[in-house]
Design brief:
Number of strands: 18
Structural class: alpha+beta
Strand order of the largest sheet: 6-7-14-10-11
Order of helices and strands: HEEHEEEEEHHEEEEEEEHHEEEHE
Oligomer: single chain
Bound molecules: flavin-adenine dinucleotide
Number of domains: 3
Helix content: 25-40%
């Protein structure tokens, strides 16, 4: 097992995941693999499936609720798969690239159309998986194609037209695949204007989101034409607590790990919010964050 993992990259055993999820849930895994050689991953996945060893791909952990229990399987991190190549109006981005770093790289070369991604604290892989977006734009507006390891452990490149996606949704959410890289369309623009846009957007985030706390962004998707945060606020759930988890006073669609929250506290609070919003508005809130099970 260890040999097989080492073929793909750097392996740590009995590894603490607290700093690998932005909720800072204190949890651990048996094996943490930082992939350095993508070409070896298909054979690793085949091996893990054959041996019935579970694995989870983790980006920056900014959209997940990890379980409290020790994970006996393998966490696969693609953080070191971070190549960026620009050719004409296309950028090829490795799954591990941090979105804010990506924007900084682009702006330094006067490519400005992806500036809206600044401030989303995730990786390219995570952003593609969930079609991340903000300020009325989403990453799939700019995708040309995505390269994945598919369910048959084949490396394939899918054109955008062959991928189903929607608001905070892609088919990858329902598939057992690994995103390796994506090609995005880029455009040259006015650098100063883009820096101004970034400054204003970040100021807006600071004003409206509890950025100084442990959280994983918006808990629920906005129902069509409505704001999940407003619905939760109007159901009087700001500051509602379960264990160490609390609904943010600044933005009701954020749950904060205020005091050593357990994953189970966060999930209980989510269920309570869903129940209250259903009771008050007859609306079923849909989770934007992913509850990981292992
Ligand atoms: C303060 C804050 C603000 C945020 N603001 C926004 C926002 O404005 N807009 C927005 O859309 N989101 C926002 N988010 C949520 C989050 O940052 C995004 O969803 C981000 O794209 C998640 O990326 P990640 O790398 O952290 O993914 P993770 O949380 O690590 O993973 C999310 C899911 O993607 C899967 N995954 C990750 N990488 C891969 C891969 N390479 N292959 C296959 N599956 C993979 C994981 O298995 C998991 O199921 C915010 C979060 C925080 C904490």
């Amino acid at each position: 097992m260890m040999e097989k993992l080492k073929e793909c990259g750097l392996v740590s055993e009995n590894y603490d995941l607290t700093k690998h999820n932005t909720y800072h849930i204190k949890t651990q895994c048996k094996y943490f693999l930082q992939v350095t050689d993508i070409s070896k991953i298909p054979s690793l996945i085949k091996f893990l499936k054959k041996e019935a060893i579970t694995y989870v791909v983790l980006g920056e952990g900014s959209n997940v609720i990890l379980p409290d229990e020790f994970f006996q399987g393998v966490i696969i991190s693609l953080k070191k798969i971070a190549d960026i190549t620009i050719k004409d109006n296309l950028i090829t981005v490795g799954a591990g690239v941090n979105l804010t770093k990506l924007v900084n790289t682009l702006i330094n070369k006067d490519y400005t159309n992806l500036a809206f991604l600044y401030g989303i604290p995730g990786s390219l892989g995570g952003a593609i998986w969930g079609n991340a977006g903000c300020f009325k734009k989403e990453i799939f507006d700019y995708v040309k194609d995505v390269t994945i390891i598919d369910e048959q452990e084949k490396i394939v490149t899918l054109e955008k037209k062959d991928i189903s996606y929607n608001y905070r949704y892609t088919e990858f959410k329902n598939r057992d695949i690994i995103i390796l890289k994506a090609r995005l369309y880029i455009e040259l623009g006015d650098r100063q204007k883009a820096l101004e846009e970034i400054k204003n957007n970040y100021a807006y985030r600071l004003k409206t989101q509890p950025l100084d706390s442990y959280n994983a962004g918006s808990v629920f998707c906005n129902p069509v034409g409505l704001s999940a945060g407003k619905l939760i606020e109007e159901a009087n759930l700001k500051n509602k607590k379960v264990g160490g988890a609390i609904v943010s006073n600044k933005h009701a669609n954020f749950i904060i790990n205020e005091n050593n929250a357990k994953s189970s506290d966060i999930i209980e609070l989510i269920n309570l919010i869903k129940k209250e919003v259903k009771k008050k508005y007859n609306i079923d809130l849909e989770l934007e964050q992913k509850i990981i099970k292992w």
